Amino acid sequence: MEALLAQLEAQLADNSIFTLQTLSYYGEGLVTTVQLVFLSLIIGLVAAVPLAIGRGSRRRWVKMPIFLYTYVFRGTPLLVQLYLIYYGVVFVEGIQESWLWVILEKPFVPALIAFTLNTAAYTTEIFHGAIKATPRGEIEAARAYGMSRALMLRRIVLPSAFRRALPAYGNEVIFMLHASAIASVVTIMDLTGAARFVYARFYAPFEAFLFVAAIYLCLTFAILYLFRYLERRLLAHLKPASG
Amino acid sequence: MIDLHGYGPRLLEGALITIELAVLSLILAIVLGLATASAKMSRNWLLHRTGTLYTTVIRGVPDLVLMMLMFFGGQIGINMVTDWLYDRFGIDTFINVNEFVAGVITIGLIFGAYMGETFRGAFMAVESGQIEAGRAYGMSHWLVFRRIRFPQMMRHALPGLSNNWMVLLKTTALVSVIGLSDMVRVAAEASKATREPFTFMIIVAAIYLLIASVSEWGFARLQKRYNVGYGEAD
């Protein structure tokens, strides 16, 4: 590691912008971006499963609130949602005296809440569509076996719906990575935040933003290949037969 | 009644800027999208590669990063060009990047890539027999495009187009970060000044929902128009 750093420093010797110092900003930014995106995606995914099931319920009082939630969160910009939570959280009665304030004071948690609510809304709609596309015959077969609703959901509907949702969910993951760039607006030092800092420090927009764009591009391709691999593994039975 | 602390008119102006920005970028994106789709379907190796590079790079980088690159880098880039023109040819010009124009160009450029993919799929969905029939009638390439390929392509492109428009509309909110006084920026300023973020942000969210709902209705009507002769599938 020491030798590697020394070598890197030697290579960067005539570079006035990309010193070890600025590269470490980008490195920390990368960690923050990945944390933010990963955490919001995981929480959003867990929340989206029951929401998607409820979204397809026959009971109006279950279906309508969930529909309203996804409609509002998918119909307004994430930036507005972020502002609402980031600026709004201060005004919640008595929050500044409670223990919650310690974590809510920093912009990371409000941003995480906004991102999670946003991705959960999109993922709910993706899963809802996938559940609705379950072939009728599969459900009838499950009923004929005498399965209860819960058992049918667990064994038949959800596994195949998750597989069908995979391509659309891959797009959502990439969308979330790109959307996370707005975290820099509320002073979070994510990848874009690091690029803005480097830009402001050296007044070098091309170097600062092209470099970060290349990192995002690599991350996007990594996600793309991961999902392509998953699709190949999990959707192998749907591939057209080839000779 | 909701107290807007005198921010009402500015909020309305901001909403108009949002709409203007969105519509103008949409037009630019459609033009770029048609060009990209043609380039990607062309047999010319260079055109095909350029189109693919454009759509891949633009769709792989966050909108905000591209926007900052254009806004902050754009002026420096243009200055470099004008300096070069002066040194080389003695032409003394100075072009100032207007924020609104830069916003339209950036958003148009981003969504041109998405539109390109939408249009490419839609053009390929038009049966080649139809195009051959048009050629057999002695129609020119342009006439075939106008009378046969375009109207039928639109039927397939409309769902994707409407989707892109909804995303584009929400992307316009990002220009507030760069300094354009769209409604999100006005609302953010008002929130800080009056310490009432809920009032302003909820109004802005409601306006976005209203625009989205109106355009959804508009696209449904367009879809009906371009689906004439195909009947509703039920």
UniProtKB/TrEMBL annotation, chain A:
> Where does the sequence pass through the membrane?
33-54, 66-88, 108-127, 173-196, 208-227
UniProt entry tagged with the keyword Cell membrane: yes
| Membrane topology recorded in Swiss-Prot or TrEMBL | Multi-pass membrane protein
Q: Does the keyword Nucleus apply?
A: no
User: What residues does the ABC transmembrane type-1 domain cover?
Assistant: 30-227
| PROSITE patterns noted in UniProt | ABC_TM1 (PS50928)
List the CDD domains.
TM_PBP2
> Which compartment or compartments is the protein found in?
Cell inner membrane; Cell membrane
Keywords assigned:
Amino-acid transport, Cell inner membrane, Cell membrane, Membrane, Transmembrane, Transmembrane helix, Transport
Chief location category: membrane
Q: Which family does it belong to?
A: Belongs to the binding-protein-dependent transport system permease family. HisMQ subfamily.
Name under which the protein is recorded = Arginine ABC transporter permease protein ArtM
Q: Which organism is it from?
A: Halomonas flagellata
UniProtKB/TrEMBL annotation, chain B:
Q: Name one Pfam family in it.
A: BPD_transp_1
| PANTHER family per the UniProt record, alphabetical | ARGININE_ORNITHINE TRANSPORT PROTEIN AOTQ, CATIONIC AMINO ACID TRANSPORTER, MEMBRANE COMPONENT
Protein's membrane topology = Multi-pass membrane protein
**Membrane-spanning intervals of the chain:** 15-39, 51-73, 93-114, 156-178, 198-219
State the compartments where it is located.
Cell inner membrane; Cell membrane
Q: Which residues form the ABC transmembrane type-1 domain?
A: 15-219
Q: Which residues form the signal peptide?
A: none
UniProt keyword annotations, A-Z = Amino-acid transport, Cell inner membrane, Cell membrane, Membrane, Transmembrane, Transmembrane helix, Transport
Q: Which family does it belong to?
A: Belongs to the binding-protein-dependent transport system permease family. HisMQ subfamily.
- What's the name of the protein? ABC transporter permease
What species is this protein from?
Halomonas flagellata
